[in-house]
Fold these 3 entries.
Entry 1:
Amino acid sequence: MKSKALTRFATTLAFTLAASGIASAAEKSCVSLNNEAQIEQEYTDANGQKAKRLVPPGKVLPGGEVVYTITAKNTCTTPADRVVVDNPIPQHMTYVMGSALGVGTDITFSLDGKTYAKLEALSVTQPDGKTRPAQAADIKSIRWTYGNAFAPGASGFVRFRATVK
Amino acid sequence: MKPFTGRIKRVALAMMALSAVGVSSSVFAAVGETTAGIDITNTATVSYTVGTSAQNPVSSNVATFRVDQKVDLTITGGTPTTTNPGALNQALIYTVANTGNGNDSYTLSVSQSAADNFDTTGIEIYLDNGDSTFGAGDTLISAPLPLARDTSAVVFIVSDIPLTATNGQTAILTLTGTTTLTANTGADNPTGLDVVFADTGNNGTEGDDNNYAIEAATLSVVKSASVISDGISVSNPKAIPGAVVQYTIVVTNTGGVQATSVTLTDDIPSNTTYVLNSMTLGGTPLVDNGGTGTTTGAPVSQISINAGNVGFAPGSNSVTATFRVTVN
């Protein structure tokens, strides 16, 4: 009897803890998101080989390409599921076709910032009524949908490139 | 492939912007480009669930960088100026365009070519008042010329032509513009405004030639024939055998300088015979081979008249000579 009561108490306690965990998550988020703008720089490595690296965006002129890296991290002790990262294309910039990547993500695009679909499913109606496939300049936002939950402490990054108009 | 796709797109955008604002010239490649100094910000958001509960979306930090200044200018020499020896305040036209993505000022200078015929003197640079013609309303440029992005200005090099210049010679002058901005050579600054020289040669300096051309005299000749008498009809003579026909040659100088040592030469048409001592110049009869009018051959097969100088001033820019033949 004594042990049964203890078990019941423990269960109740665990439930209460879990409930308070969710409550605190609503106030203090469980996923942190870092966004970094960089540019690709060619340099000569120690072996004399030309290589590329990402550096802070020093000189950026119209036409210049910027690499954005968005890193999500689960900062809680519970898994974060159905992680979806959205990044609207910044004003004055144009998405670089084919540049969006994210390991373990399903990448979709939006022409209006609201509805997302695979790039090949997106089309634009032209003034003459005909439709054409969506082009880089049409893309307003990118969405990365993770297939797997983020374990506690786990992180992942997604990336895209855009050029300054 | 990725950068290539992006570049194509930028070109298309620039063209769209051009047509939208109605800029006819394609000189402004920067139209539609983001203006220097603008901060471009980027924010991502993430949504997720814990257990089955959707959590409040989380925004990332704002990633920011500043669009730097691309210094670019284009100078284009216009149509060469035709002028005369000794002419004063002659203007050469040029267009200076700011083709970068920010406002700039350009120091203008003039250099004379070593590969032409003469140099001009008293050189000054004027800013046009909008009529693309050098005149009293134009302004002497004595300081760097400010130009907002995507704008251009018409400027003139004004100078004097030496009296020693001669017909057909040219003087080539180069107008050079140099940005007053200094290229950033220090460490790149993501949040500050760097200056990059994006012009040809990446030196912030561009120039182009135009030239003065000393115009040569341009002569036109009009020859006409009229029947003077046919021995039968006085009122309406016909060119029948024995008729006298007068040829009139009018030489006109349509150029900008005096033509000198002008000689008119004409062959006596076949089946006609030159009427001796029938040449006239400016209405004055000439004696054959008397110094001004010369005949060649016996019978005469060709005549020539030394018309001397033919000026270019309207009203006194032509001479008239005549001679007569009889129809065989």
Note: The two ends of chain B are 86 Å apart (CA to CA).
Entry 2:
Amino acid sequence: MELFLQQVMAGLATGGIYACMALAVVMIYQAIDHLNFAQGEMAMFSTFIAWQLIQWGQPFWFAFIAAIVLSFIGGVLIERLLFKPIHDAPILSHVVAFIALFSILNSLAGFIWDFNLKTFPSPFGNKPLLGGGLLGTHEAGMIGVTILLLGILYVFFRGTRLGLAMRAAAANPESARLVGIRVGWMTALGWGMAAAIGAVAGMLIAPVVFLEPNMMLGVLLYGFAGAVLGGLTSPGGAVLGGFAVGVIENLAGAFIPYVGRELKLTIALVLIVAVLMVRPSGIFGRRVVSRV
Amino acid sequence: MSAPEHTAGQSVPFDAALGTAESAAQPARHHWAIAGVVIVALLIPLIGKSFIVFQLTLVMVYALAILGLNLLTGFNGQFSLGHSAFYGIGAYTAAILMDQADIPYYATLPAAGAACFVVGFLFGLPALRLQGIYLALATFALAIAMPQILKFHPLEGLTGGVQGISILKPDPPGFLPIDADQWLYYFTLLVLLVMFAAAANLVRSRTGRAIMAIRDNPIAAAAMGINTSLYKSLTFGVSAFYTGIAGALGALAIQFVAPDSFTFLLSVSLLVGLVVGGVGSIPGCLIGGLFVLFVPNLAEKVSTGLAGAIYGVILLLVIFVMPSGAAGFVRLAGAHFARWRSSRRSS
């Protein structure tokens, strides 16, 4: 039982990382209706900007806020310059453009800041808190920030006119345009917000996994898995999905004898696919009903 | 997920779903073009350096793998990030059969194809319930799982674990005065031609129309009496079959298989090749193969430090200039040319 609790704790700690990323993934999905494969690299790049500001002697919170603002601007610029011109192209061309963006950001970060591991400071300290040190203050802080972010987004999307306009623009661009919503700018805004949330995620994740250009690769994949498991239409579901992926992965490693440790990622993914068989739009996702 | 050739979907009459590339006016020109490419392909090993011959062999291998993905994505509208797994199964089937059972290399191809067909068909069954991005996740799971399964300890006797398996390059038949590289090139070319022709025929057949009808409008297809579940699973199987044979040929060319050659990144490469060549275009797969092999090397040559950035920029330029791939670009250019000629003639 103690082992079980410990594994759940460890799972929640890593799950917090995935949940953070899953939230960013779902955000951009709501805004542009595509999964952005370059999201992790955008977050990584933002984190490097914050790190650079700290290296130049700026205080942590200034760097934190500056990185978020710069990421927002960067996200809007990427949409305006790269994705607006091809918004009529087939979806697979978009996917390839995401892959291109991924490759560019990864390579640029490696070129500017090299591939050595860098430590990134945590605003919450690194003292043990629960579960025999498995869940430290940083992990707890990270989970707290994720849940806070989720709350803010919920209020924004449900309670403000701008949030409503963004949802409308993503759900039905033609009708949204007819009622006077500037759909193009809503999409750009969605990119900006996703980049900003990604920056928060990146800066929270960096103290755990160390800062380097490839730090987000694994995290993004788990984040995707969490987002899809929870349902891409539900930010709350995505956060829960992220935690679930972390816990499942840890429990599979600990409790499925022999096979578990080597294949824990595989087992986690197989479980996710099995869940999708039963609920094809994720656990909390809305079923998309199409008119014939 | 729309293919440029037939995006009109439900409004197109069923018969018109057949590709426009082979439409009535140009069959003769079309055949000449194919003959020309084949003749050039036959001559290259006699004049090119052996490294070029090796690289072009790999281009054909990738083109075949991309064709497999194209059958599934371009013609049937199912998304896959898991084709690296099928490629890996094909490569390992060939390598294990040659290494452990001393089976001649040419006989491993059907075995690799058959193994992949079975795996692909079985994987296609549960995938029936999933669409779009959810299907992408399921296939992605397959791509992530494959290297781990190949490294899995209890299977080490068979797969060689992390070390992988080395195999020998097949000897050319005694009566031909060519070396092993040249022979492998011709062997791959032969397999490629047969499989491309088979794919072109499949797409033109009744079955092919059913496959494309499912892509364009699954509900209308089902209403017309097409067994969509069966066709979708079968397409998954056939797609895996193609990619598996490509994997076996790739193993012969590289003479080595190891788990980390068949990661998710290979799936991404195949996807890039598919889009660059043209979704839903069979000749486009060759262009995709060329891109996948040569462009990363080219980027590496321009600047080692920024290779990834240069590759990304090239990729973006390609998407900007040809949003629906090389095949779509050629078709558009052809249409413009025809319009220009007819306007000159009438004036």
Note: The CA atoms of residues 143 and 199 of chain B lie 24 Å apart.
Entry 3:
Amino acid sequence: MTKDFNIEAYVDHTAAAIGLPIDSGHQPNVVGYMRMIAGMAALVNEFPLPPSVESASTFTPCSISTLE
Amino acid sequence: MEVARAALSRIAASDRTLNCFTAITAERALAEAAAVHAALVAGRDPGPLAGVPYAVKNLFDVAGLSTLAGSRINAESPPATADALLVSRLTAAGAILLGALNMDEYAYGFTTENAHYGPTRNPHDPQRSAGGSSGGSAAAVAGGLVPLTLGSDTNGSIRVPASLCGVFGLKPTFGRLSRRGAFPFVASLDHVGPFARSTADLAASYDALQGFDALDPVCAERTFEPCVSQLRLGIVDLRIAIAGDYFESRAEPEALGAVALAAQALGVTRRVSIPEAARARAAAFVITACEGGSLHLPNLRQRAADFDPATRDRLLAGALVPANWYLQAQRFRRWYAEQTTDLFRTTDIILAPATPISAPCIGQTTMMLAGEQVLTRPHLGIFTQPISFMGAPVVAVPIHRPGQMPIGIQVIAAPWREDLCLRVAAALEAVGVASAPVAAP
């Protein structure tokens, strides 16, 4: 997150991009929560990780026996 | 049959106040009790949990009921055609299902203040929160309505309500127990586990729940590792430490006091530092928002007004999280899991607070932590989130505090060592430091 990150604009544009209508009455709260998430993400993103660190979200191919 | 009828009577007497149950399966309970009785009469083994009444968080499939997951939207779903796997396992063990229990909508909360089904009340003080999101599961045990319940824990949803209601709860290792038939929230972090009023009951139910399930993609192929038989082994050979730093800096005196009582009883003074715990909580927060928002995106697009307002706006924000934030959080989790698992080379058990405070009042939006006013809901899980993020097993242990609201601690072990958590919990119970008395009506 950069200092000039405009969260209101981000919420509006991204919601439009993914086809998610946000009621104007809900928008201020959504922006507030996005600000909270952004703060958390900044804490994570500032932590240097070497390229060798893979995602903890792994994939195991299905076996045929599992599907039977 | 008498046991099932007595449980139904207790529920009828107490649930009007506590609001734990969203469905009562009386007909099924009586049929299951009759089956247990018939097995006994016929000389067959009725199972290790024969006749034990239990209930499940309403995100578990129960054949014949719509799986609410705390929502109004899911009430429109057709009834489940089969039980969740863990419900099947408890049935096979002879336990008797009494019903389904209240929770935060879609498990996204720590207070069980559900806009659709009302708040679940803390049996020790009905003006206070039961915690969440498995609030109905914890309160039903604390109130003596049933001795055993199932809940789920993504960021603390077993351990937070166990702490606030003063009962034992087990969040097993990530991937230990099958989640098949449990409505998902955050696939990367969802766990399921039991609540009970004693370590023995917790271990007995956990043993009945264990077993590989190829149809849960994260369920690990582990052999059955019984715990009931381990409880008597004691703790003399265990290296136990207190979680320092992050886990001491933001806890109120009552939470630190609970850890100190346990540590004193166990003769523990050594401290360890769980590396980057605050960042782990942050990463869990990002992953939760993103996966939760994505899961519910179709309904958020079409019928946002039907969500609980407390859930809706967080899910809407979560649906907008950029991929980089999510993926960095997942990569950080890999690093963190390796670092924290390394910690267990020299330490078998870590003690930490389960919640920073005892139960807040229902409707209380803020609380004080280390002299700072913070939002209640997200901060009840500050000590549980970094632990589930590493996937380690935890027993939430209620510390005996006569005349005061309950509060629990986390007894944490290395992944796959639930047996050690349960041994320490049993030791604390044996010396009277841990207890889960039924709340006075």
Note: Chain A has a mean pLDDT of 90.
